């Protein structure tokens, strides 16, 4: 099995983190941003969106990072990353979908503004709006984590993976205002104890 | 009994109503959101902190995020082929569902708002056409898939066809120019023959 995508991409990191949690072996090829590849015709055949990651396993090709994580968890992580209980499973998937619909789009401007834009080109209004939106979204996470230790249940599941990557990035920003969110902070501390999280997610912002 | 909260003109509520129709499920529905309001009431925010629709209450189990609701109900009450058990078909089905929320929905919003929710005299024709071209490129990706399989994830109708079938309805009924995607049209025509699609989706756009 091969994963195509640069290690600095948050979407690639979801897959690498999940694979490490389940101790699955794979090959990886760099693609995207400075590595290119995604603009080639050969890549478009695999992934017509020209984004990363893409999973290639023989004839089976899959893109969309959360769908890849769920697929791998279904294959290798039943009862752990992929909950057996139908309610815990649906709740885990719900937090994954919520990252795509809500947490991710709200975070784009603060990330691009602070990490990718040169200081003199930063749009501070957009950055502040995105910061406030992200803080409000993390309050939603905090309210859930007041009820359960992890997002879908008291156990770590695939539901924690997409939001966990955003938590790293949120706490890695320097000099931004952050409201105290005690449940998020407890959860984030627990994620940092996981070797797979440290190896694939806590790698700087790029 | 299953309770669905959300106005039936919402594309995200329609996903849930459509899957209930396919499964022959009985439910109660409460109008909420849009002209009905109510989605910012504290008692609603307590169960769905995003204040959006739909939310379901399945004998006390609360779930939001429409695609997760579709998967939950299809897994609980259905099985193959609607809720695929084959790992690869399942991966493909979930991939198209994620792609709808990550990619199709953000591209649909400006076209839908421009043509359906903005009075003709206030429309920005150039902006709508630019957005329509982008949207068309996404339907071209679906058309390419549908040249290989009868439905999006396989030759059977699955959960993958639900979110994108609603996008397909909007593509085919909005008052605008459309490229001739023959596989997409064949797929869409097949959807229009389904009673559950007619009931839940083929209604005036609002």
Question: Could you walk me through the main structural features you see in this protein, from its secondary elements to its overall organization?
Answer:
The complex is a heterodimer of chains A (206) and B (206). Chain A has 206 residues and is an alpha+beta fold. Chain A folds into two domains: 2-76, Glutaredoxin, CATH 3.40.30; 86-197, Glutathione S-transferase Yfyf (Class Pi), Chain A, domain 2. Chain A has eight helices and four strands; from the N terminus they run βαβαββαααααα. Chain A has helices spanning 10-21, 41-46, 65-76, 86-116, 124-145, 160-172, 182-192, 195-200; strands at 2-4, 27-29, 54-57, 60-63. In chain A, helix 1 links the parallel strand 1 and strand 2 (27-29). The mean pLDDT of chain A is 97. Chain B is of the alpha+beta class. Chain B folds into two domains: 2-77, Glutaredoxin, CATH 3.40.30.10; 87-198, Glutathione S-transferase Yfyf (Class Pi), Chain A, domain 2 (Up-down Bundle), CATH 1.20.1050. Chain B has eight helices and four strands; from the N terminus they run βαβαββαααααα. In chain B, strand 1 (2-5), helix 1 (11-23) and strand 2 (27-30) form a beta-alpha-beta unit. Chain B is globular and about 45 Å long. The mean pLDDT of chain B is 97.
Task: Count up the domains of chain B.
Answer: 2
What class would the helix/strand composition of chain A place it in?
A: alpha+beta
Number of beta-strand segments of chain A: 4
Query: What is the CATH level 1 assignment of the largest domain in chain A?
Result: Mainly Alpha
Helix content of chain B: 40-55%
- The structural class of chain B is alpha+beta
Number of domain modules of chain A: 2
Quaternary organisation: heterodimer
Tell me which protein chains meet in the greatest interface and how many residues each side has. Answer: A-B, 29 and 30 residues
Global outline of chain B: globular
């Amino acid at each position: 099995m091969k994963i195509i995508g640069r290690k600095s991409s948050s979407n690639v990191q979801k897959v690498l983190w999940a694979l490490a949690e389940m101790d699955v072996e794979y090959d990886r090829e760099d693609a995207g941003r400075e590595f290119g590849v995604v603009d080639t015709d050969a890549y478009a055949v695999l992934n017509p969106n020209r984004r990363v990651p893409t999973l290639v396993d023989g004839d089976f090709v899959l893109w969309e990072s959360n769908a890849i994580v769920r697929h791998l968890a279904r294959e290798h992580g039943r009862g752990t990353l992929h909950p057996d209980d139908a309610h815990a499973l649906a709740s885990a998937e719900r937090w994954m979908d919520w990252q795509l619909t809500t947490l991710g789009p709200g975070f784009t401007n603060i990330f691009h503004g602070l990490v990718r834009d040169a200081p003199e080109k930063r749009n501070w209004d957009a950055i502040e709006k995105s910061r406030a939106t992200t803080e409000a979204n993390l309050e939603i996470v905090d309210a859930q984590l007041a009820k359960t230790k992890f997002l879908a249940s008291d156990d770590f599941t695939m539901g924690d993976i997409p939001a966990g990557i955003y938590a790293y990035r949120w706490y890695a920003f320097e000099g931004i205002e952050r409201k105290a969110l005690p449940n998020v902070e407890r959860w984030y501390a627990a994620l940092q104890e996981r070797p797979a999280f440290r190896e694939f997610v806590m790698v700087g912002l790029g | 009994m299953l309770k669905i909260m959300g106005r039936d003109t919402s594309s995200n509520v329609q996903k849930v109503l459509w899957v209930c129709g396919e499964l022959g499920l009985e439910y109660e529905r409460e109008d909420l959101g849009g002209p009905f309001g109510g989605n910012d009431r504290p008692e609603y925010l307590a169960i769905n902190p995003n204040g959006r629709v739909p939310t379901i209450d399945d004998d006390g189990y609360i779930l939001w995020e429409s695609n997760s609701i579709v998967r939950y109900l299809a897994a609980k009450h259905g099985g193959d082929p609607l809720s695929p058990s084959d790992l690869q078909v399942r991966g493909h089905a979930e991939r198209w569902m994620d792609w709808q929320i990550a990619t199709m929905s953000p591209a649909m919003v400006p076209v839908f708002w421009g043509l359906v929710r903005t009075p003709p005299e206030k429309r920005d024709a150039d902006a709508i056409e630019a957005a329509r071209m982008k949207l068309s490129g996404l339907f071209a990706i679906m058309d390419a898939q549908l040249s290989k399989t009868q439905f999006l994830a396989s030759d059977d109708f699955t959960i993958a066809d639900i979110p994108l079938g609603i996008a397909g309805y909007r593509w085919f009924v909005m008052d605008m120019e459309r490229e001739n995607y023959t596989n997409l049209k064949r797929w869409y025509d097949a959807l229009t023959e389904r009673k559950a699609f007619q009931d839940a989706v083929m209604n005036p756009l609002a």
